[in-house]
From TrEMBL:
Keywords: ATP-binding, Cell inner membrane, Cell membrane, Kinase, Membrane, Nucleotide-binding, Transferase, Transmembrane, Transmembrane helix, Ubiquinone biosynthesis
SUPFAM superfamilies, per the entry: Protein kinase-like (PK-like)
Superkingdom: Bacteria
Protein name (Swiss-Prot/TrEMBL): 2-octaprenylphenol hydroxylase
Pathway where this protein functions: Cofactor biosynthesis; ubiquinone biosynthesis [regulation]
Annotated ranges, domain ABC1 atypical kinase-like: 97-342
Protein species of origin: Oceanicella actignis
Transmembrane as UniProt keyword: yes
UniProt record, GO biological process: ubiquinone biosynthetic process
Keyword Hydrolase among record annotations: no
Upper taxonomic lineage: Bacteria, Pseudomonadati, Pseudomonadota, Alphaproteobacteria, Rhodobacterales
NCBIfam families linked: UbiB
InterPro entries: ABC1_dom, Kinase-like_dom_sf, UbiB, UbiB_bact, UbiB_kinase
Similarity comment text for this entry: Belongs to the protein kinase superfamily. ADCK protein kinase family.
MF terms (GO), sorted A to Z: ATP binding; kinase activity
Length: 508
């Protein structure tokens, strides 16, 4: 992409920000010095008419971004999920962005399907209908799979969307560089790193095979979850630019009166939203990272249905255990234990004081538990926790930020269903279930068994290893005859461990 084209995009973006009043907000977020803000105002004023007007009904920043096009909107949406980067106020303002667009023509969707699946759309699908939803990256059509007669939802990427996004993302990097150059203070916000994060998010959404595999994995994990469902992927009708899922009928989650009228128990559904999410995060370490109402449906029998698997979060098993212990500690109001967990996990750098840290944790927990149950928020607890751990020198990790962010959304959805829902009492059984399965004696035995399996794999080589160790010990010692007695405690320990592990492996 030529520098000229990027300069043009920079000028147009700047002028649009100026015209919509978003410039001031952005300069403030970037901590621009007053002189620069004044200069921007003076220089920007004559340029403003060159910018796009946007929709005056929107707040300045969403107004500027919607005027500039889909990639900008998507960028704003992504930033709204990163309050750690743009600050809570801007994140909240950006969260009103929705990328609902006019659908592209059905004929183009059919052409795309033919190209991707290698046969005319009419041969593969019957009753291919007009788009039910259209966003910046893709749109969804209802149809019937001719081979099985099953109703399906066909998600098709917008024609040329990869190229359009690539151009805009290129311009974003250029703008980020310019900002970093002119506003050294902005480097704290790492504009280029933010662009990289965005580019990565978009890249996964631009390949529907990744969404298909996420859906399939999520479905397999949650197969036995009560009252929860994920549509099945129709693999033979899916490719990079087309994703076909089993169609699911249900009421939109946003239509609470209709859900109630259908006879669904709202309190039960509210609890299920929270518990299902937590179970996925803790038990599977694989959770839906975009659980807003538009991506959830409720079947007539009350089953909660998840859609849209473009943003998923992963947490490794170790972090899951640490987090469950932390949540459990908070639930028990055992702040010292929570502090110990942080220290044991190495989350808090050495040299910090355990008691002081526990005190800081109490300052988070007590006010929250002192509140009326309907106002207790787990998401708030997590965000306070991140603040405190950062103060004590720990860096918050991206996967936990996504977890916290999703928890905000999940709590919001749960509250629309049952304003009185008590997050903690709802979370408790899931956390305890996980603790029981992962931290009790049964779990210890399972860990031991896994260790034994690994050791057993070395089985055929063990005699050799032991013999060599013995020989080495013998050579080192002055009296070869009582070499075994001289074995270092480490080797003795290892041998005992191996023997014990072998015994366990045999028993289990
Ligand atoms: N399997 C499905 N069955 C029924 N409707 C679906 C299905 N998948 C998607 N939809 C409809 O299409 C809309 C957009 O799909 P989604 O996957 O959320 O796309 P986007 O990534 O554009 O948000 C959903 O809100 C839902 O109404
Ligand atoms: Mg969606």
């Amino acid at each position: 992409m030529g520098v000229l084209a990027n300069l043009w995009r920079l000028a147009r973006t700047g002028a649009t920000f100026q015209r919509t009043g978003a410039m001031d907000e952005v300069l403030e977020a970037l901590e621009a010095p007053p002189a620069l803000r004044a200069a921007a105002r003076i220089l920007g004023w004559p340029l403003a008419p060159l910018g796009l007007a946007g929709d005056p009904a929107l707040p300045p920043l969403p107004r500027a971004l919607t005027a500039l096009g889909p990639a900008y909107v998507k960028f704003g949406q992504t930033l709204s999920t990163r309050p750690d980067v743009v600050g809570a106020r801007l994140a909240a303002e950006l969260s009103v962005l929705q990328d609902r667009l006019a659908p592209f023509p059905e004929a183009e969707a059919r052409a795309e399907i033919a190209r991707e699946l290698g046969a005319p759309a009419d041969e593969l699908f019957a009753d291919f209908g007009p788009a039910v939803a259209a966003a910046s990256i893709a749109q969804v059509h209802p149809a019937v799979d001719r081979a099985t007669g099953r109703k399906v939802a066909v998600k098709v990427l917008r024609p040329g969307v990869e190229r359009a996004f690539r151009k805009d993302v290129d311009a974003f990097f250029f703008i980020a560089e310019v900002i970093e150059l002119m506003l050294p203070a902005s480097r704290r916000l790492r504009p280029r790193a933010v662009c990289r994060h965005f580019a990565q998010v978009v890249a996964t959404e631009l390949d529907l095979r990744l969404e298909a595999s996420a859906a399939a994995e999520f479905r397999a994990n949650s197969r036995d979850d009560p009252g929860f469902a994920v549509p099945e992927v129709v693999w033979n009708l899916s490719a990079r630019r087309v994703l076909t899922l089993e169609w699911v009928d249900g009421l939109p989650m946003s239509d609470v009166p209709a859900i109630a009228a259908a006879g669904v128990d709202l309190r039960d559904l509210s609890r299920r939203v929270i518990q299902t999410f937590l179970r996925h995060a803790l038990r599977d370490g694989f959770f839906h990272g975009d659980m807003h109402q538009g991506n959830l449906k409720v079947a007539p029998d009350g089953t909660l249905i998840a859609l849209d698997f473009g943003i998923m979060g992963r947490i490794d098993p170790y972090t899951r255990r640490v987090y469950a212990e932390i949540l459990y500690g908070f639930l028990q109001q055992d702040y010292r234990r929570v502090a110990e967990v942080h220290f044991e996990a190495g989350y808090v750098p050495e040299g910090q004081d355990l008691e002081t840290f526990a005190q800081a944790l109490r300052s988070i927990g007590e006010p929250i538990f002192g509140q009326d149950a309907s106002r207790i928020s787990m998401a708030r607890l997590l965000s306070h926790l991140f603040e405190v751990t950062e103060r004590f020198g720990m860096q918050t990790r991206t996967e936990l930020i996504l977890l916290q962010r999703t928890m905000v959304v999940v709590e919001g959805v749960a509250r629309t269903l049952d304003p009185q829902v008590n997050m903690w009492r709802t979370a408790q059984p899931v956390v305890e279930e996980f603790m029981h399965a992962n931290l009790g004696p049964a779990a210890a035995l399972r860990d031991l068994r896994r260790t034994a399996t690994v050791l057993a794999r070395f089985g055929p080589r063990l005699p050799d290893v032991v013999e060599r160790a013995l020989r080495r010990a013998a050579v080192a010692g002055p009296e070869p005859d009582d070499a075994p007695a001289r074995l270092g405690p480490a080797l003795a320990g290892a041998l005992a461990g191996a023997a014990a592990a072998a015994a366990v492996a045999l028993l289990l």
